[in-house]
Amino acid sequence: MPAAAESPPLFFDEGDLVAVLTTQPLDRTLDYKAPEGGCFMGAFVEVPLGPRKVLGVVWGKGAGDFDYNKIRSVIRVLDVAPMDVSMREFIARAADYTLTPLPAMLRLATRAPGLGDPPSMRYVYRLGDARPARMTDARARVIAALEEYGGLAFTLKELAEAADVTPSVVKGLVKAGAVLEQASPRDLPFPHLDPALPGKTLSADQATAVGALTQAAARRRYQTTLLKGVTGSGKTEVYLEAVAACLGAGRQALVLLPEIALTAEFLTRVEARFGARPAEWHSGVTMTERRRTWKMVGQGNAQLVVGARSALFLPYQDLGLIVVDEEHDTSYKQEDGVLYNARDMAVLRASLVGAQVILASATPSLESWSNVEAGKYQRLELTSRFGASQMPDMRAIDMRAETLPGDRWVSPTLQALVQQRLAAGEQSLLFINRRGFAPVTLCRACGQQVGCDHCDARMVEHRFLKRLMCHQCGETKPVPTVCPSCEAEDRLAAVGPGVERLGEEVTALFPDARVAVLSSDMYGSARALKAQIEALAAGEADIIIGTQLVAKGHNFPLLTLVGVIDADLGLQGGDLRAAERTFQLMRQVAGRAGRAEKPGVAYLQTHQPDHPVIKAILAGDEDGFWTAEAAERKAAGVPPYGRMAGIVLSSPDVQEVFDVGQAMAQNVVPLTRIGAQVFGPAPAPIARIRGRHRVRLLVKANKTAPIQAALAEWVRQFKLPSTLRLSIDIDPQSFY
Ligand code: ADP
Ligand code: ZN
Roughly how many angstroms between the first and final C-alpha of the chain, as a whole number? Predict the structure, then answer.
């Protein structure tokens, strides 16, 4: 059901048949009669479906294959701008690409409550001119609260809380004329961002990059640019100028960030550059704010959105620029529900509306690197760090030559280096990419490892929470004192390092140092985490111990030493991207050191100092690494030089899931016809999640093979039991 091009937009008169795509899981559009007053193509509508009213979009002319008289009418047209043809096309193409049913795609594009509600009003409270005849302590507190915040309006709840009074006290003051009660629309436009405010004075490198980007923007044609530069080289400043050019041209911009914890710092930078804060869209935003953002984006009253991947599906009226910051980050791949890669979808969306894409990264994905090689993307590079700071030196600590007891992880060499930093009043960061205290809890009596009851995964001890946790399904339980299998008492031992355990070791090694452990699960909210990171960066700790969280974009000016506890961790998985991930992560972690005036050094503890990835990291030889990695992937015919799809079947019934997997593996004509190969069925690397057994098939094809159509035809051949779930992941990023 691809959207057809049209201009001017089609209009349907009352009674005309329209095809409506709803958000309900149906495999086709439904016919309705256009309502009184008619409707445009793309209109958001409410339609009857059985006894319910559901949301939908007018997707085309009705098919007319039912008795006209029995067809029901659209209930109403929602008071929002119709979905334009490029957005309909985007949804249709994204659905085709990811093999996602259209209704699920439409749900992504309408994920805000109350979209159809008329602009609702609420009461707000401000300071009036009169003073009440009778003054009480409570009343005085209300007035003081209003005075403290100048002309700001409060809701009743906010004001009562700020003044620590009951709402009736406020109402009393309204009666007395001391407080004004005013109706105000709930969804306010976002404050104006002024692109004409002065930016920073750019370095020559930056100015060249900005020049190339703004020229492209002026042409209003689609283009993707890979903006490469080490952390701290000034990429953010550069793309802020591209945002300025986009806003200056009257178009909207979107900046995607991989991690909510990063948004706060970025919002502050936007405010400094443009004089106001942009709209936000991510899981930390309230439902009310979501609706406001959705509506204002649709009315063109939000110039800039900063958000997570699903912000791609907002109803922009004139999108001119999408920035994907840290474009290599794995969190851009949605791994639940609709499986899409926001980086690729950003490129698709931009290409449909004549917008620019900027992919910013210090360590681009091999996909983007190869698109540059192929001439599809432009490449801009910032070659030096901004100001005096240098990329740190990187060196290996050969763990084969260190003597270390089995349950300790900081080598004597690294210990001595940290000691030097302590003496000099500088910060050290010790990095380990494992949350919790220890990855394995082992019974010393029977040798069993404590596993999750619902998944085929080990439970990870989190001492901070005093529980064992499954990192797969999130299930937790108290740390047992008795072995669940052999019932021996007090024989359970924590095995292997986690960030919390490293914290204990370091505290013992450096009793006088201030040690801080930074891990996402230790802070209740993104805000608390952000506050903690800021305090650490300002010098509140001498030694910071962190997981991959710290690898992402934060500034630590006092940091001069980075120690990577286990540089080999990422090299062990069977994942085709293991080498790439390790390379990126190590580079980023190392990029934390020496961001200010003082040069930094990074040390990698490794048992394989001669491994090609470790050697490339140490040499800082990026092009060398990518060229070698590209050659290997080309030879193996895997992404980005071949196409892959992962098919995961899951069911509570292990026999059923293997039977269906077998049947699928035996009837592969639609796939072999396009030259694709099918591997499996095999137990998925995580063979059970939340009580469902998982079996995986892998499909591999040439880069140009029409894999989606073949997959769809292949899957259609099978009648799947209702207990079985099938998911198809095109271009899988992780293999689990
Ligand atoms: P990146 O995004 O590549 O990590 P940033 O844009 O965040 O780099 O720049 C790193 C630091 O240098 C930031 O604190 C930023 O404010 C500063 N900076 C970058 N460019 C300039 C400039 N032209 N003038 C002044 N400060 C700059
Ligand atoms: Zn589990």
Answer: 32
Ligand 1 pocket: which of 205, 358, 386 to mutate (most atoms <8 Å of CB)? 386
Q: Is 653 in a helix, a strand, or coil? A: coil
User: Helix, strand, or coil here: 395?
Assistant: strand
**HSE of 690 in the Cβ direction (CA atoms, 13 Å)?**
5
Among 134-138, 158-162, 244-248, name the most confident range. 244-248
Tell whether the model's pLDDT for residue 585 goes beyond 50: yes
Nearest-ligand number for the alpha carbon of 203: 1
Q: Per-residue DSSP letters for 546-615?
A: E-GGGGSS---TTEEEEEETTTTGGGSSS-TTHHHHHHHHHHHHHTTTT-SSS--EEEEEES-TTSHHHH
Cα of 563 vs centre of ligand 1, distance in Å, is 25
Q: Does domain 642-730 have CATH number 3.40.50.2300?
A: no
**pLDDT attached to residue 388:** 47
The percent of residues in the chain predicted with pLDDT above 90, rounded, is 44
Please tell me the predicted confidence (pLDDT) of residue 481.
87
Q: Residue 146 in 3-state DSSP?
A: helix
Distance 476 CA to ligand 2 centre (A): 8
* In the predicted structure, residue 83 carries a pLDDT above the cut 80: yes
Measured by CA distance, the residue closest to atom 20 of ligand 1 is 234
CATH superfamily for domain 11-82: PriA, 3(prime) DNA-binding domain (3.40.1440.60)
Q: What is the CATH number of domain 393-434+497-629?
A: 3.40.50.300
Quick one: pLDDT band at residue 111, thresholds 50, 70, 90? Answer: confident
Which residues is 648 bridged to in the sheet? 696, 727
| Token pair of 166 as six digits | 């009951």
Q: Who contacts 135 (Cβ-Cβ below 8 Å, separation ≥6)? A: none
The rounded Å distance from CA 112 to ligand 1 centre is 35
- For residue 451 and ligand 1, the question of a CB distance below 6 A is answered with no
Asked if 345 and 312 count as a contact pair (C-beta separation under 8 A), the reply is yes
Cβ-contact 267, 338 below 8 angstroms: no
Ligand 1 pocket residue status of 203, Cβ below 6 Å: yes
Q: How far is the CA of 562 from the centre of ligand 2 (A)?
A: 33
pLDDT of residue 3: 41
Instruction: Please list all protein residues whose beta carbon sits less than 5 angstroms from ligand 2, which is an ion.
Output: 452, 454-455, 470, 472-473, 475
Strands of 113-249, DSSP E? 121-127, 179-185, 223-229
d(CA 691, ligand 2 centre) in Å: 8
Whether 204-382 and 393-434+497-629 share one fold: the answer is yes
Residue 2 has pLDDT above 50, yes or no: no
In the numeric block, which tokens belong to residue 418? 């940290």
Instruction: Give yes or no for residue 206 CB within 6 A of ligand 1.
Output: yes
Report which bound ligand comes closest to the CA of 468. Answer: 2
Spacing, Cα 230 to ligand 1 middle (Å): 11
Name the CATH architecture for the domain at 204-382.
3-Layer(aba) Sandwich (3.40)
The chain-wide mean pLDDT, for the chain, equals 86
Please give the number of the atom of ligand 1 that sits closest to the Cα of 206.
Answer: 23
Q: Return the pLDDT at 4.
A: 44
- Please say whether the beta carbons of 159 and 124 come within 8 A: no
Q: Please tell me which residue, 384 or 646, carries the higher pLDDT value.
A: 646
Residue 85 token pair? 């043809």
What count of other Cβ atoms lies within 10 Å of the Cβ of residue 489? 10
Q: Over 70: is that where the pLDDT of 595 sits?
A: no
Residue 535 has pLDDT above 50, yes or no: yes
